[in-house]
Design a protein that fits this description.
alpha/beta; 5-stranded parallel beta sheet; 5 strands; about 140 residues; 5 helices; about 20% strand
């Protein structure tokens, strides 16, 4: 029997800590591993070399600064964890990863950093709720 998997989606907002805390709680309850997902902004495509490489490296570095403390928190809780740092759009990426990894649960926040954008394009949470291949726990 394979181990259960929980996809934990964070965005670096104030809600990320609550999301990770809840994921640790559920991972302990179900003896599950966590796949921590963070979606950064798109890489620049209109910038010329070497500036494009510099901008890309900066985005990756900033993403790692967001993800690393949460990875350590999960590891300190003796839970197996992998991370996926992905490029937007988060709504599609989260569901795709959950499908590919055969996740049993997605844990994410009800809102995050993109409040104004979500009014125009539809929230990431709503998109995941519509497309997820498994149950979704929305943390407030």
């Amino acid at each position: 029997m394979s181990r259960k998997k929980i996809l934990t989606a964070i965005d670096g907002s104030q809600f990320s800590e609550s999301i990770v805390d809840k994921s640790i709680e559920y991972a302990k309850l179900f003896d599950a591993e966590i796949i921590l997902v963070y979606c950064h902004r798109k890489f620049p495509t209109t910038v010329v070399q070497p500036f494009q490489e510099e901008k890309t490296a900066h985005i990756i570095s900033e993403s790692e600064k967001v993800v690393d403390p949460f990875l350590q928190q999960i590891r300190d809780s003796n839970i197996s964890v992998e991370d996926r740092i992905m490029e937007e759009p988060a709504g599609a990426v989260i569901s795709d990863i959950a499908r590919i990894e055969a996740c049993d649960l997605i844990i994410m926040g009800s809102r995050g950093l993109t409040n104004i954008a979500s009014l125009i394009t539809g929230s990431v949470t709503n998109r995941v709720l519509q497309t997820a291949p498994c149950s979704v726990l929305v943390v407030r």
